[in-house]
Amino acid sequence: MPTTCFLLAIVISLFAHPAWTGPVFRQQVTPDDVMSLADLMEVHVEVASLPSILDSLGITLKDVESHLIDRLMNNSIQVVADEDAPQVKLQIEATYDDASPDAYAFCATLSLSQPVHVKRVDRHLHTPTYHHTRLGLFPKGDTAEMILMCINLVTDDLANKVMIATEQEAQQAGDGQGTTEQATTRDQEDS
């Protein structure tokens, strides 16, 4: 009984003293590449030309672009014609090995480029701030469906990171550390 009371007293005292528990419950820091996605609501879309081996599977550039646009819009990211908007670029690579011609390997990479200020060279540049890649190896007959699934995965990852960054930005704004204060600090550092 005395041991149980002693352990209970230790547990209670840990929660009674926030300074002791602070490091245990430290807030996770979101990386800058993810934070650069905060409040991303619209993008311009570009799909790189597809590997010719996908022609035999009936996969067209138009179908891939349409699927990507639909997935972005389903994730509340509007697609615009404005080429100055942040740009989502999808690139798909595919290959097969002659030793196993019934299996296709492919890679889908989604990148987001946006205007940034590079302090070192004192220039505003349009540069990639986010990449996500998925790889797949599937039987030839399943490859077309799996490529569309890969597009879903890389697009959903972007949308999830946008949501995380936007929520964290809103939380910081509510804590008095919001975007206006951060922008002012960054502008002062840049000058």
Which properties best describe this structure?
alpha/beta, 5-stranded mixed beta sheet, 6 helices, 5 strands, single chain
Q: Nutshell version of this structure?
A:
The chain has helices at 2-16, 18-21, 32-35, 61-74, 143-174, 179-190, and strands at residues 42-47, 78-79, 87-97, 100-118, 123-139.
CATH class: Alpha Beta
Helix share bin: 40-55%
The largest pleated sheet is described as: 5 strands, mixed
Radius of gyration: 23 Å
Helix/strand order: HHHEHEEEEHH
CATH architecture: 2-Layer Sandwich
CATH-derived topology: Double Stranded RNA Binding Domain
Intertermini distance: 66 Å
Domain module count: 1
Tally of separate helices: 6
**Number of strand segments:** 5
Strand order of the largest sheet: 2-1-3-4-5
The low-pLDDT segments are 16-22, 178-191
Inertia-based shape? elongated
The chain-level structural class is alpha/beta
Strand content: 25-35%
Average pLDDT over all residues? 82
Task: Characterise the protein shown here.
It is elongated, with a radius of gyration of 23 Å. The chain contains 6 helices and 5 strands. Strand 1, helix 4 and strand 2 form a beta-alpha-beta unit. Helix 4 (61-74) packs parallel to helix 5. The chain is an alpha/beta fold and 191 residues long. It has a 5-stranded mixed beta sheet, with helices on one face. Mean pLDDT is 82; it is low at 16-22 and 178-191. Helices cover 42% and strands 29% of the residues. It has one domain: Double Stranded RNA Binding Domain (2-Layer Sandwich), CATH 3.30.160.
